[in-house]
Design a protein that fits this description.
This protein is of the alpha+beta class. It is built from 26 helices and 19 strands. It folds into 4 domains: 156 residues, Glutaredoxin; 330 residues, Glycosyltransferase (Alpha/alpha barrel), CATH 1.50.10.10; 76 residues, no CATH class; 85 residues, Glutaredoxin. The strands form 6 sheets. Strands 1-3-2-4-5 form a 5-stranded mixed β-sheet, sandwiched between helices. Helix 14 packs across helix 16 and helix 19 runs antiparallel to helix 20. It is globular. The N and C termini lie far apart (63 Å). The mean pLDDT is 95.
Length: 687
């Protein structure tokens, strides 16, 4: 019989709806049952494409013996961490306090009042390789609950006190030396052989790369750019990238980016696309632009809902085996391609009889370069490239016949904001209108389907159903998207929506006692602690993203309230950032803009005017991370709205009837110019 998850919409919760475990979704019903029956709560948090969540489910949650004990002695609660990041964030902090690490599946034991007293991640059914067994753990926790209840309660209270104390902080400030320290820490952790930072497992962490690009722009230090290029090149050449269907996997289990954890997350595509686009702006090398295009091709093809929203993720597993969909053997290659082509492809992608993965299978990666293969196979370099591309397409078509990994098709406001921001940047940098169209459709879908009559955002949409009031990152990431779309389209309607989203964000999440932004809204469900997120992990934190966007909004509009809010975020969290700046690189990106020097460019003209278009092209050329661009239409209804949103443009008009640029630096505007080449010369000094 299905349990109480059967009525949920989350793909992750539905995966467990027919477990013999009597799962409850998070809510009062579960806690009331725990109080009534005097049982502790077992809280399990994961997500639909989590490999070790699947493993623990198969070993324990589908097991009758485990389920029987769990149902008798506990109330079991399942949470999708992507739908309820508030719950996940609080109890992940608990796990880190207790065990020193975190991850998914997250396994937490609570009192019926929600106090945590023990936490961990994956547990096998029975003890092995030094890991405690889940069944033995359940038995020990049940014993402690019966015999040492007071100790359990005291432990829970101490944990809550630690979390509450960690949420408080003294007001401080950042300095240029903090940017220097972040750079030094990244340089110290850099892997000069394979790129990236630290040892295996190795994560992309794109905001560390975008920080280095800004540090390079500020200082000219070539080492910063070198680390970015080596990392981006190695990731694209390795198995972290899906060489056949495009898109990046979650992380590499080794140091050389060869063997990935095969799940694909929407947010990784968005953040990596932006890193490649910015590196293209800095270097002008077409390689980086091409990788961004490949990411966008994957997302448009496989991760886009017909209504315009973007899906969340694709699983690592197929039929219970990780990577089965993505890996190949030489025989499988030869079954699709002619022998001569198959030999070339196997050499290029490193497919061997022995394999580099499990069961003799190979993860495809760029093992050879076309130049060396051209001489070996008696072809020109272009002939090799053409043959490889034709083979890739043939393998892609054949791969469609394989059982596909699960697609988590829920649509999250926050992650859609990130992807829309990336597509808008893609249009601004590469000029492909389909990217702007994708961004506009996505935010349009969110605006219409994930927003209530009061203008409040929802977190999740799936199959016509919305749920959960929005969290800080839903507002922060969507606000980021609207700003990117404004500077891509120069349609003031998107700037107005950015203002509305940021106004709502400050109203709902600003902490008037400590400054900065809470993760949950003032009227949201209260957990054991109000989380204040600033660490930049796989995703930039909500406060870091808000800092970036508020500083940018202040530049664009000239409205000092946005700058004051950004400064308030810096003051609220500077004490924490200063401890280890490398962990807060997206936060430092925002500080980089806020600290300045900044530049603003106001263009006045008509989009039909070639001179105006030349000015737009010039201002978009190169990498200027502390520059904001505003367009005032020479005529039409957008003028009045733009002047209301950006009052400083009221006096800025065409000069002599020609497209005109006003370039402002250090809060001072120079004389207007009407020659695109003169404007381009002025911009050469802008960073």
């Amino acid at each position: 019989m299905p349990n109480k998850l059967a009525g949920e919409k989350s793909p992750y919760l539905l995966q467990h709806a027919e477990n013999p475990v009597d799962w409850y979704p998070w809510g009062e019903e579960a806690f009331a049952k725990a109080r009534r029956e005097d049982k502790p709560i077992f809280l399990s948090i994961g997500y639909a494409t989590c490999h070790w969540c699947h493993v623990m489910a198969h070993e324990s949650f589908e097991d009758e013996e485990v389920a029987r004990y769990l149902n008798e002695h506990f109330v079991a609660v399942k949470v999708d961490r992507e739908e309820r990041p508030d719950i996940d964030g609080v109890y992940m902090s608990v796990c880190q306090v207790i065990s020193g690490h975190g991850g998914w599946p997250l396994s937490v034991f609570l009192t019926p009042e929600g106090l945590p007293f023990f936490a961990g991640t994956y547990f096998p059914k029975r003890s092995r390789m030094g890991m405690p067994g889940f069944l033995e753990l359940l038995q020990e926790v049940a014993r402690l609950w019966r015999e040492e209840r007071k100790k359990i309660t005291e432990t829970g209270q101490k944990i809550r006190e630690v979390l509450q104390q960690a949420a408080k902080g003294e007001e401080s400030f950042l300095e240029e030396s903090d940017l220097e320290r972040a750079f030094s820490q990244l340089r110290g952790a850099f892997d000069p052989r394979w790129g990236g930072f630290g040892e295996a497992p190795k994560f992309p962490t794109p905001h560390q790369l975008t920080f280095l690009l800004r540090y390079h722009a500020r200082t000219g230090n070539p080492a910063a750019l070198g680390m970015v290029e080596e990392t981006l090149m190695a990731m694209r050449q390795g198995g972290l990238f899906d060489q056949i269907g495009y898109g990046f996997h979650r992380y590499s289990v080794d140091a050389r980016w060869l063997v990935p954890h095969f799940e694909k997350m929407l947010y990784d595509q968005a953040l990596l696309a932006m890193a490649y686009l910015e590196t293209f702006q800095v270097t002008g090398k077409s390689f980086y632009a091409q990788v961004a295009r490949e990411i966008f091709e994957y997302v448009l093809r496989d991760m886009t809902d017909p209504q315009g929203g973007f899906y969340s993720a694709e699983d690592a597993d197929t039929e219970g085996e990780e990577g089965l969909f993505y890996t190949w053997t030489p025989d499988e290659i030869r079954a699709v391609l002619p022998e001569s082509e198959a030999a070339l492809v196997c050499r290029y992608f490193g497919v061997t009889p022995r394999g580099n993965f499990e069961k003799g299978r190979s993860v495809l990666h760029m093992a050879e370069d076309p130049e060396s293969l051209a001489s070996e196979f008696g072809k020109t370099v272009q002939e090799v490239k053409n043959a490889l591309e034709n083979a890739r397409r043939a393998l892609f078509e054949h791969r469609k016949t394989r059982p596909a990994p699960l697609k988590d098709d829920k649509i999250l406001t926050a992650w859609n904001g990130l992807m829309a921001a990336a597509f808008a940047m893609g249009y601004r940098v590469l000029g492909d209108t389909q990217y702007l169209d994708a961004a506009v459709r996505s935010v349009g879908f969110v605006w219409e389907s994930l927003r209530d009559s009061r203008g409040r955002l929802y977190r999740r949409y799936r199959h016509g159903h919305t749920a959960y009031t929005g969290y800080l990152d839903d507002y922060a990431y969507l606000g980021w998207a609207f700003l990117e779309i404004y500077e891509a389209s120069f349609d003031p309607d998107f700037l107005e929506k950015a203002v509305l989203v940021h106004e709502a964000m400050l109203e709902l999440f600003w902490n008037r006692e400590s400054g900065g932004l809470d993760f949950i809204a003032k009227d949201a469900e209260q957990l054991i602690v109000r989380e204040r997120e600033v660490y930049d992990g796989a995703l930039p934190s909500g406060n870091s993203t808000a800092l970036n966007s508020l500083a940018r909004l202040a530049q664009i509009t000239g409205d000092v309230r946005w700058e004051k809010a950004a400064d308030g975020i810096v003051r609220a969290f500077a004490h924490e950032v200063k401890k280890y700046p490398r962990a807060y690189t997206h936060f430092l990106n925002g500080y980089d803009r806020l600290w300045g020097p900044t530049s603003e460019v106001v263009l006045v003209g008509s989009f039909q005017d070639p001179n105006f278009q030349a000015m737009v092209h010039a201002v978009r050329r190169g990498f200027r991370p502390r520059t904001a661009v505003v367009v005032k239409p020479a005529e039409g209804s957008g003028r009045a709205l733009l002047e209301r949103l950006v009052p400083l443009t009221a006096a800025m008009e065409l000069v002599g009837g020609r497209a005109t640029a006003y370039v402002c630096q250090g809060r001072q505007c120079g004389n207007p110019v009407t020659d695109p080449e003169v404007m381009a010369t002025l911009l050469e000094t802008v960073r």
